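Hi R.,

Here's the chain you asked about this morning:
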Amino acid sequence: MVVVRFFATWCKACKAIQPSFYRMASLYPHVTFLEVPVTNHNANLHQGLEVPSLPYGHIYYPEAGLVEEMKISKKYFHGLVKMVRWYDDGSCGIDEFVPESEDADEKDK
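And the predicted structure, written out as tokens:
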């Protein structure tokens, strides 16, 4: 699983949640946490990913791709924590949506 935080160095709300993001990363060492700054050099990336505001978060799950996207300012950060816990625990039922591998198909034959 990959958790991405989109932020800008000038953004006060981004700075406010940074310690919480780092704390969550330390609690889930087996999850990859990435920070992607918004700059003039990568504006196309953020526009292409349709990041509407900052700070913003994405959760990517193996073989399923982008599964969650949300505002992650202080008011909404608890939602990111909840979703990371949910996907990490396997409570999300994502397996229902992930295509079976070819090995699994051959076992059924």
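The two ends are 31 Å apart (CA to CA).

Let me know if you need anything else.
M.
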